[in-house]
Amino acid sequence: MKDFLQYLAEPIAMRTLWTCVVIGFVDGYVSALVVLRRSSLQIGAVSCALLPGIALGILLFGLGQWSALVGAVVAGLLVGLSSLFVARSSALHHDAALSIIHSAAFALGYMILVRLGLQQKVDDWLFGNIMSMSFADLCVAYGVGVVALLGLTIFKRPLLLWLFDARMAASLGLPTRSISYAVYALIVLALVSSLQAVGALLTLGLLVAPGGIMRLLTNRASTMFWGGGCLGAGCSVLAFFVSYPLNLHLGATIILLLGAIFCVAWLLRKKE
Q: Total domain count for the chain?
C-alpha cells in the first residue's frame, strides 16, 4: 500500500488516471452508438485492421507519434469501406468480405512490424499500455471526445431516427449514406484514440461492453449514451486502483471488470 501511495504522488500516475477517465468515458459514450447500430462484429474486425495501418505508416514515415496514428486511421477507414465495396459489387456478404480483408491486412501488418524489429511495440499496440501514453495521446482522446459529444448531441434526433428506422429517415430526406459514413468515421476515431491505452484486441470490449450493459438495463437512448460513458470511466478508474497493487495489466483489468458487470446486469435482467 505504501508503494502505491508513493506511485500516486508521481506525475505519470495522475496522467494515467486522467487517461482512464477520458478514454473510458469517450469509448463508453460511443459504445451506445455501436450497440444500437448492431455493428459490434464489424468494429471488432476493423480494430484488428489498425495494426497494418500502423505498420505502413512506420514503414513509410518512420517510427513516430503521428505516423502510427494517421496510419491507423487510414487503415481503419480503408478496410471498412473496401469491404463494403466488395460486398456491394459481388454476392459475398459484408461480414465475410470484412473478415477476409481484415485478417489478410492484420497478417501483413504483423509481418512488417516484426521485420522492422518492433516486436515489443507490437505487444503494446495489440494489448495496450496506458502508462506509456503521452500528453499528445491524451489530447487526441480529448479531441475525439469533443467531436463525439458535440456531434451526437447536435444531430441526436436525425441520428436516432436513422438508427431505428433508416427507411423512414431516407423518406424524410435525411442523407442516410452520409450519416452512415460519418458514424463509421467517428467509431474509427474512437478506436484509434484508445489504441495505445487498451490495444487493438481489447479496445473492442471498451467500445461495446458499456453500451451493451446499458442496453440490458434501459431502453432510453440518451441514458445509454451518458450511462455508457459514466460506466466506462468508472470501470477504468476502478481498474487503475485494482491493477497496480495486484500487479495486473491495466487494460485487461478494465475489460474484465466490464465483463463481470455485464454478467451481473444480464442476471438482473433475466430475473425481471
A: 1
Residue at 237: amino acid letter: V
Distance CA 49, CA 78 (A): 9
Q: Give the Cβ contact number of residue 241 at 10 Å.
A: 14
pLDDT digits (tens, 9 = 90+) for 256-268: 999 999 999 988 8
User: Rounded to 5 degrees, what are φ and ψ at 220?
Assistant: -85, 125
What is the span of the domain harbouring residue 110? 2-259
The enclosing domain of 84 has a CATH number of: 1.10.3470.10
DSSP classification of residue 250:
H
Structural domain includes residue 84: yes
Distances (CA, A) of 173 to 162, 166, 180: 11, 11, 14
Helical (H) or strand (E) element with 220: none
Q: pTM for the complete prediction?
A: 0.82
In this predicted structure, the answer to whether residue 175 has a pLDDT above a threshold of 80 is yes
